[in-house]
Amino acid sequence: MSRNSVGVDVGGDDAAKPEDKSMGSGFCGAILTFVSILLIIATFPLSIWICLKIVQEYERAVIFRLGRILGGAKGPGIFWIIPCVDTFRKVDMRTISFSIPPQEVLTKDSVTIMVDGVVYYRVFNPTVSITKVEDANRATQMIAQTTLRNMLGTRNLTEILTDREKMADQMEDILYEASQHWGIKVERVELKDVKLPQSLQRAMAAEAEATREARAKVITAEGEMNASRALKEAALVMSESPAALQLRYLQTLSEIASEKNSTVVFPIPVDLMATFLKK
After folding, report:
1. What is the average pLDDT value for the chain, to the nearest integer?
2. What is the pLDDT of residues 57-84, one digit of tens each?
3. Residue 25 CB neighbours (<10 A)
4. Which pLDDT tens digit goes with each residue over 135-180?
5. 182 with 117: CB under 8 angstroms?
6. Do 82 and 65 contact (CB within 8 A), yes or no?
7. Residue 123 domain flag
8. If residue 42 lies in a helix (H) or strand (E), which one and from where to where?
9. How confident is the model at residue 95 (pLDDT cuts 50, 70, 90)?
10. Domain that holds residue 64
């Protein structure tokens, strides 16, 4: 029974301590606030310049009174503070961008590459961005670097080179899920550059050159095949009309004579030889 009574007594003392602290803090805070107001009244109108604060259209002010948040974010425009009691911090609501330093990533197919990027974000809840995280900008940068390495480590090199926009969208979704609890919204992510090792670049260049040469040979072969078919069809047409063959023969002689001034030996026409053979 003695242990139970001691436990009750100890519990009662512990419960009373926070109440005493809160009451003491509230009393001291009330006195400090009253004194500050008296000083403002005593030094009026000079004190108005200390109490009057202005935030721009793209800014918000989070006010702390005796360490506690006073309402929501203030601004844009004019707001008032009580010196010695209130403090405030300005938060920029514009879109902010930062570059992700080049990260060394080992891809799924064991290729080491260097990848960098850029992230665009903005603060949508100034109060949360101040109270939930110490430095929202640095925290977003750190998580962007980690997310970039982790995501690219699960992809092949071919996927990284061909699906950069898709991976950027996936990274944007991951960063938004992670940073929305800090009052930050990631609006856009871009992968700027993918640097490959020199040996891999030479191998890919050789492969691309071999592919182009093979394609060129195939195209040349197809052209020769089409040309031979056309010549065959032309020969069949001319064989049916001896006059057409003779006209083509004369046209060829005319082209030869017009190109260079040289002596041309005319062969004996085939039809003349056929006449002599008949005789």
Report:
1. 77
2. 889 999 888 888 887 888 888 888 888 7
3. 13
4. 888 888 899 988 888 888 888 888 888 888 888 888 888 898 888 8
5. no
6. yes
7. yes
8. helix 2-42
9. very high
10. 31-91
Q: Distance between CA 90 and CA 62 in Å, rounded?
A: 6
d(CA 39, CA 51): 11
- CA pair distance 180, 220, nearest whole angstrom: 59
Q: Are 264 and 253 in contact (CB under 8 A)?
A: yes
pTM: 0.61
Of 70-79, 203-212, 251-260, which gets the smallest average pLDDT? 251-260
| Whether residues 55 and 79 fall in one domain | yes
Taking a C-beta distance cutoff of 8 angstroms, is the pair 145, 219 a contact? no
Question: Partners of 92 in the beta sheet?
Answer: 59
Q: Which of 200, 228, 253 is the last residue of a domain?
A: 200
Are the C-beta atoms of 51 and 82 separated by less than 8 Å? yes
Chain centre distance of CA 39: 54
28: Cα within 13 Å, side-chain hemisphere: 8
Instruction: For residue 210, tell me if it sits in a domain.
Output: no
